[in-house]
Design goal:
Keywords: Membrane, Transmembrane, Transmembrane helix
Largest sheet: 6 strands, mixed
Protein name: Cytochrome oxidase Cu insertion factor (SCO1/SenC/PrrC family)
Order of helices and strands: HHEEEEHEHEHEEH
Shape: elongated
Number of helices: 6
CATH architecture of the domain at 69-224: 3-Layer(aba) Sandwich
Structural class: alpha/beta
Radius of gyration: 33 Å
Strand content: 15-25%
CATH topology of the domain at 69-224: Glutaredoxin
CATH class of the domain at 69-224: Alpha Beta
Number of strands: 8
InterPro entries: Thioredoxin-like_sf
Transmembrane segments: 43-66
Length: 234
């Protein structure tokens, strides 16, 4: 009969044309809530890590990336020298792990020979520099390194080193000391103050016979940039 094909349902026509309809299900509210909690937890952990690392990052950006050219009194060591494996001993001959040098800023002197008047003056300056830091002084330890073949400190010197916040005195093989720390051209190791950061890295060398007030400014700037690194004095 004429007109009978015109009654084919519209859906069948769409199917004939290769068209299909897809029904999407709604997301599970519980799965969405769990995903959001996981994301918040990860963001929180990231914020905690960034907060802890911020002072360290700020310090190293200040002194190793945006180096204060013409402003630092001492010579910044760039890149800083990592703490090597050292065979350290105290004055009683007891072994001391090199890792014990980490955790504090170390204002370090080297004495390769018997301690003379110049040595005594450097030790006095070391003590005064720490005191000049005021409330920041507890972030800094005093260290004296001796080659293992250097003369024994006298009884009077030992007594002086132990007064107040004592100086940590350690011996190590001369070749290890000389491979780690380097003097300026024409100078000896005992002519300088060396500064180690809380990670044990050598990062600053003061000039020979430094002016305490100028060296103190370098120390203060470093301490401000490392506010979260300090530990109780060794």
């Amino acid at each position: 009969m004429s007109g009978s094909n015109s009654s084919v349902p519209a859906a069948d026509k769409l199917a004939d044309q290769g068209l299909t309809l897809t029904v999407h299900s709604l997301p599970d509210p519980r799965s969405m809530a769990e995903s959001q909690r996981t994301l918040r937890g990860r963001l929180w952990m990231l914020l905690v890590v960034l907060a802890c690392a911020a002072p360290v990052v700020a310090s190293y950006l200040t002194f190793y990336v945006f180096k204060p050219q013409g402003k630092a009194y001492g010579e910044l060591i760039h890149p800083p020298i990592e703490l090597p494996t050292l065979q350290l001993q105290d004055l009683k001959g007891q072994s001391v792990p090199a890792e014990s040098l980490k955790g504090q800023w170390l204002l370090t002197l080297v004495q390769e020979q018997a301690c003379d008047s110049a040595c005594e003056h450097r030790l006095y300056t070391q003590r005064q520099l720490r005191e000049m830091l005021g409330k920041e002084r507890d972030k800094v330890d005093k260290l004296l390194l001796l080659p293992e073949d250097a003369p024994e400190p006298s009884a009077a010197l030992r007594e002086a080193l132990a007064q107040g916040v004592g100086v940590t005195v350690l011996r190590l093989p001369r070749e290890q000391l000389q491979a780690w720390l380097k003097p300026a051209a024409g100078q000896g190791l005992q002519d300088h103050f060396f500064l180690m950061d809380p990670m044990g890295r050598w990062m600053l060398r003061a000039p020979s016979n430094p002016e305490p007030s100028k060296l103190k400014r370098d120390l203060s700037r470093l301490l401000k940039a490392s506010a979260s690194w300090d530990q109780p004095g060794r």
